[in-house]
């Protein structure tokens, strides 16, 4: 991937999954093909990105209050320890929480299982003007559901098309969807699991089932590969984010979010009132003066 | 209030509404009775508060993953321009967004109006381990509902008791409720409304109806006074936060949130597994090594 960097136009170009020639096995989770070369450079960048995100997010929020329907949905997927939580802290933490809505999708409840798999997801789609973040998502329904045979293969195979239809529908409603697969190596996952087990303050992040899931690492990679290839569409692309280095992962996701907002170019709404008239009302007819 | 500061034990003591001798008309929105004396001092404090909040919030979140039921609900109420949004940005922005859930209560929808006034509120109560923030709340149902006669007086009068019962129920479920009334003066509101009208980037924050509401300032103060007095209970106290100075308002709310978390003293759960056994599994029987 490194040799492609010269032609790279944007971070979204660098990491977008192009179904026609994508092979997850060829993506190096430790790569840093474009952008900052060190944690320190990345930190400096993040501060700048944060400022621009802040401006764009406020404009998006303002646009929403003026009747605009546009919004952004950042979907985070990845194996245990790939850093979904860390990405939320460091990337979502850059924006104003007032305009942010985070949804975590855990093992479905009995109520959720009585509905179509997209039912609980639709309820969490961000409202106009908001940046939504999905910590896991409807993709679990073609990942764990497939690897653990929770549904027949005819069922999960059908879901790719249903997901694409759903995401196309979201796009028509004004949702810009940015899907990030946080790609880590089994070696790095091992290190991080050990770190969790060695630090009592991290014990809560671990449970023995994590090793059962880890044992299926290659089956998950295949399931991810298929999900990325089948569901990376022009209106809702997947990005394969090298995530062995936390600082690089955070930088890439922040940059992808920034580029999505730049492309949207949200606009402050024209006021539906005359500011001069209102100022006069307040200055001349204010009953509380 | 300033002369009481010598005996003050905590910020919650300083600002808690004690129904027996509370008079909103006596609370100075410009006061800074305890704590930092300047914006600069407050900023230094906020950095320290942020670090402690971060530690406590992580412990609360961890406790929740281990079966704990405790959580925190921060309720923000106040007149237009009192700074609910700014408080969310600067106080909620101190904590990890992953453990934060913000809900905004706007004018009820038709669906919401078909239900009891607490229906939409119950759906937004934070889950165990989370810090929830309500940007407006069920108190609108004894504020605008009363001032604008949206319901008969028999109806809104009944709601104080219903609210107290609801909040007592939340307390029993493990919710620590911290309710902040962001108290501003009409003069300061006037300045902030003018600022919104004079800055095109703030026009979206204003609408002409704001002046109609402003004209009812004193009726709202009475409605707030009653809500604070009738619904400041031991399990869900109200705090009257002087909010003419933004830096002071943010500092007080941050400190109230911090004190609530300190009182909870959340604890990391004991692991339900043996870390040594798991480490051995990972070191000796890892199929991916």
UniProtKB/TrEMBL annotation, chains A, B:
UniProt KW Oxidoreductase keyword: no
Biological processes, Gene Ontology terms: polyphosphate metabolic process
Domain Polyphosphate kinase-2-related: 38-263
Domain of life, per lineage: Bacteria
Pfam families: PPK2
Keywords: Kinase, Transferase
Coiled-coil portions: none
Listed GO MF terms: polyphosphate kinase activity
Protein name per UniProt: PPK2 family polyphosphate:nucleotide phosphotransferase
